[in-house]
Design a protein that fits this description.
It is a single chain. This protein is of the alpha+beta class. It has one domain: 60s Ribosomal Protein L30, Chain: A. It has 2 helices and 6 strands. Strands 1-2-3-6-4-5 form a 6-stranded mixed beta sheet, with helices on one face. A hairpin with a 2-residue loop joins strand 2 and strand 3. Helix 1 crosses helix 2. The two termini are 14 Å apart.
């Protein structure tokens, strides 16, 4: 029962003392992802839709590296800079998941890393 670090070049490198994801047995804990483009390391400048899509693409890359996918996600947490973006983020989010949807919490926060508008983390089965 040891924890295993999951690392992929197809998602942003950690910008602090944390891992992209940690696998423990058949559970995967994926750190919050923001709209950083993995190839450049720069934050995606654009709409809340494009930011959300990039965040979910980053999550997808980490899930894939661990041998998982959106169909195995059990729980997500969405952090929004502005709760007025909830419906828009929800629309994009809904294109990545199918029923039964994972459990989820969505919270508005004062500030996110690199001043992005959305961050999402998840717990998945492997």
């Amino acid at each position: 029962m040891s924890k295993q670090e999951i690392v992929t070049a197809n998602a942003p490198s950690a910008i602090g003392p944390y891992s992209q994801a940690i696998r423990m047995n058949d559970l995967l804990f994926v750190s919050g992802q923001i709209a950083i483009i993995p190839a450049t390391g720069h934050v995606l400048a654009g709409s809340i839709e494009s930011e959300t899509r990039q965040v979910l693409n980053n999550l997808a890359a980490i899930l894939k590296e661990a041998g998982s996918g959106f169909d195995k996600v059990l729980k997500t947490t969405i952090y929004l800079k502005d709760m007025n973006d909830f419906l828009t983020v929800n629309e994009v989010y809904g294109t990545f998941f199918q029923k039964p949807y994972p459990a989820r919490a969505t919270v508005e926060v004062a500030r996110l890393p690199k001043d992005v508008n959305v961050e999402i983390d998840c717990i998945a089965k492997v």
